[in-house]
User: What shape does this take?
Amino acid sequence: MKIEVWSDYVCPFCYIGKRRLEKALEAFPHRDKVEIEYKSFELDPGAPVNTEYSIQELLSKKYGTSLEQAQNMTDSMSQQAAAVGLDFRFDTSVPTNTFDAHRLTKYAKTKGKEASMTEILLYAHFTLSKHIGDRDTLVELAKQAGLEEEEVKDVLNGSDFSQEVRNDEAEAGQIGVQGVPFFVLNRKYAISGAQPSDVFLSSIQKVWEEEAKTSLLKPLGTEGMACDENGCEIPSTKS
Assistant: This one.
C-alpha cells in the first residue's frame, strides 16, 4: 500500500497529521507493507525568506483579526500538538519561504533519507525555531539526516530539484488538493486534513481489505483435484 502525503513544513496541521497517521500505522498489522511518500506543497509560494513579522502578526494580517485572536489561534494549535506529543513554540518560530526546504527533501529522497529529512525539518521549524528558509541552516539540518554537506550545498546553491517540487504542486492542483495535509491512499481514496488516528486507521484497513479482494486470482477452466482441511480428493479408478 502506498500513502502519498502533500504537506508544507510551516503547516502546523501537517505535523499533527503526520503524528496521527503514524499512530494509526502503529496499530495496523501490515505496517511493513505501507510505503509513505511525501509530496511538496507550498502554502505561500510568494512568502519571503526573511520577514520582520512574527507568526501571530502574519496571521492577524491574513485573517483580519487582532493580535490577541491570532495568539489564541496559535495557542489552540499548540494544545492540539501537545495531545500527540509535539512541542510547538510559535512565539519564537521563524516564518519563511519553504521552496528550498522542499528541494532539499527531494534530494534527500534520492539518498533514501526522505522520511528522516521531513521529520527533521518539521521539528526544526516548530520546536527548535530554526530558520528553515536559510540555506546554511538547511545544510546543518541535512547533515543531521546523514547527507553529504558539499552535495547539499551544491543542490541548494543551484536549481536542482526545482522541477520535482513544481511537479508535485501541479499534480496537487490536478487532483483537487486545496489545503494540506492531504493524504492519498493507493490512488483510490483521499483524506483531507489532520484527521483523528482512528479515521486514518479505518481508512487504511478499508483500502487494504479492498486491495486484498481485487488481487485474488480468478479461476481458469473447471475445478481440478485438490487438497483442503478435510483431506484430498482421490480420483476414481473405475473405467
